Amino acid sequence: MRLLLVEDDPMIGETVLDVLRAEHFAVDWVKDGNMADTALRSQHYDLVMLDLGLPQRDGLDVLKA
């Protein structure tokens, strides 16, 4: 299962990333809304964990797109 983690807080992102990878998920981590949009257009993900309060582009805008 391939996951996209969209989180700008390094402490939260690193913790979630470590836990998911320990469970053998393939995880890509991006830190702003523009990077999330790019990742979603270039790769298929089974699940997106999306922070709503992101720099560059709001998480709700990413979700709508």
Question: If you had to describe this structure to a student in words, what would you say it looks like?
Answer:
The chain is 45% helix and 22% strand. It is of the alpha/beta class. The protein has a three-stranded parallel beta sheet, sandwiched between helices. Strand 1, helix 1 and strand 2 form a beta-alpha-beta unit. The longest helix is centred in the N-terminal third of the chain and has 13 residues. It is globular, with a radius of gyration of 11 Å. The protein starts with a strand and ends with a helix.
Describe this protein with a few key phrases.
65 residues; 3 helices; three-stranded parallel sheet; 3 strands; single chain
Structural class: alpha/beta
The CA-CA distance between the termini, in Å, is 22 Å
Order of helices and strands: EHEHEH
Q: Widest sheet: strand order?
A: 2-1-3
Write the SSE topology:
Layout: E1 2-6, H1 10-22, E2 26-30, H2 33-42, E3 47-50, H3 59-64
Parallel strand pairs: 1-2, 1-3
Short structural summary:
The chain is built from 3 helices and 3 strands.
